[in-house]
Amino acid sequence: MKNFIQTLVIFLLVIGNIFAQQEKGIIGTNNWLYNWTEFKPSQNDYGEPTQILAGNITEDLTLSKRDIYLLLGDVFVTNNATLTIEPGTIIIGDYDSKASLTISKGATIIADGLETDPIVFTSSRSVKRAGDWGGLILLGDAPTNKFGNGSVSAFYSQLAHDAYANTNYGGDNYQSNSGVLRYVRIEYAGKRIKAAGYFNGLLLASVGSETVFENIMISHSAGDSFEILGGDVCLNKVVSYKSNSNDFKFNFGAKCKLNNSLAIRSPYISSNEGSRCIQVLSFDKKEQVDFTKNGTEVVAKNLTLLNDSDNLKSDINMGLVKEAIFIGENASLDMDKSVISGFNPAVLFEDEIQINQDNLEKIKFANMYFNNCNGNIFIENNSNNEDLENWYGNSAFYNVYSKSDNSETFIDINNSKRPDFRLRINKIIASKDHYASEDLGIDD
């Protein structure tokens, strides 16, 4: 009996190790990036368009997989209509007309793809580049912290006077429903607009909590990959890949849960305005917002934020690598069980933020894995971060620090077809010493 029990214990330990998974960063017993993601979209030939989408969609419409659609100019779904997109459907954004698709307030999009048959928005050009077309915009009636409601009218270069109502967002319904985006890829979006900067891959303005966002990949966007203005959204298993601008930008009182998601930056791709994995702001200008309303609140869990440098020290010395996360005044970020690897530094606080108990309780980092960063947490324009290091390095937060190459840290990041960005199990040499990752030998 004793031998049987010992054998059973050994068996359970072996099985436990086989099926164990790293708790930090993106997680899953299996690699959830398989099948539906694409890390080399320029090599895909999606075929020639067979149908055109243009003007306003004012009645319910279904796009079928059997057709390939050319998105021409600024297309709006209005009049409480629902646009349904079948799994596997291809929508090609026209380069010449700066095509974009906007789901206006009250309208709905049901883009519910499959793991083996994702919905794809991409560029019309044979040689595709970031910013070839506009992007996808969802406008809802959830609150912001602005005075009055907002508008995205500046994004559209030619807009009829009676169409301005279709660009408005904002209201008081946190639970509003703009539809479903699931197993969707958005490629080469972010067209530049002279008066408004850049479109984003996916802009969510005042979108409510009943809207579903799962398994969305945005690659090679010239603007932000994901921008969330106000509203209350939950993003699950989303990917930003080599955006020119920010991977995730939150502003104007956005409430967001960001779960089990991935951002991969390249130091050799960046906009003039700078680029970060995450930017959390509550306003652009203080006069824009009502401070009696809640500021931006982001809760992030199991993220992997990765800088893909060939030579991190050289790239930092050349000014090509920035911080992974920037947090502005009056904004809140609660990050847990996440990985930040290869940045300069990992986190930067706006210099307007006072380091006191109230603000430190609004900005939390716990169970984190800081790897190979040139410093961890700093205040903007201040090289002395001892107070922040002592606070977040406290053993109560269970943050760990390491200096390992990406190829050693993650399971298989060099596999072009099936990369795996989960942490390696039991192969991470990490320390609770919060100074462990500071010395990369970077020149002053």
Question: What is the helix content?
Answer: under 10%
- The helix count comes to 5
Mean pLDDT across the residues is 90
Contiguous low-pLDDT stretches (5 residues minimum) are 7-19
Gap between N and C termini: 66 Å
**Class computed from helices, strands and strand pairing:** mainly beta
Would you mind describing this structure in some detail?
The protein has 444 residues and is mainly beta. It has one domain (23-423). Helix content is 9%, strand content 34%. The chain has a 27-stranded parallel beta sheet that branches. Strands 10-11 form a two-stranded antiparallel sheet. Strand 32 and strand 33 (420-423) form a beta hairpin. The longest helix is centred in the first third of the chain and has 18 residues, at 2-19. The protein is globular, with a radius of gyration of 22 Å.
Brief sketch in words of this structure:
The chain is mostly beta strands and 444 residues long.
Please tag this protein with its features.
444 residues; mainly beta; 27-stranded parallel sheet; two-stranded antiparallel ribbon; 33 strands
Helix-strand layout with pairing:
Blueprint: H1 2-19, E1 51-57, E2 61-63, E3 68-77, E4 82-85, E5 90-93, E6 100-103, E7 108-112, E8 119-123, E9 136-139, E10 150-151, E11 168-169, E12 179-187, E13 192-193, E14 197-198, E15 202-205, E16 212-219, E17 226-229, E18 232-236, E19 239-241, E20 248-251, E21 255-265, E22 278-280, E23 297-307, H2 312-317, E24 325-327, E25 332-336, E26 339-341, E27 347-349, H3 357-362, E28 363-366, E29 369-371, E30 377-379, H4 386-392, E31 400-402, H5 406-409, E32 410-412, E33 420-423
Parallel strand pairs: 1-3, 2-4, 3-5, 3-6, 4-7, 5-8, 6-9, 7-12, 8-12, 9-15, 12-16, 15-17, 16-18, 16-19, 17-20, 18-21, 19-21, 20-22, 21-23, 22-24, 23-25, 23-26, 24-27, 25-28, 26-29, 27-30, 29-31
Antiparallel strand pairs: 10-11, 13-14, 32-33
